[in-house]
Amino acid sequence: MNETEFSAIKEIVIKRMKDVFSEIPYGIDHTLKVLQNAECLMLKNDITQTERQVVVLSALLHDIGAVEAMHKYGSIDGKYQEIEGPAVATKLLSGLGLCDSMIERVCYIVGNHHSKDKIDGTDFQIVWDADQMEQI
Question: Closest Cα partner for 70 from 39, 25, 119?
Answer without folding.
Answer: 25
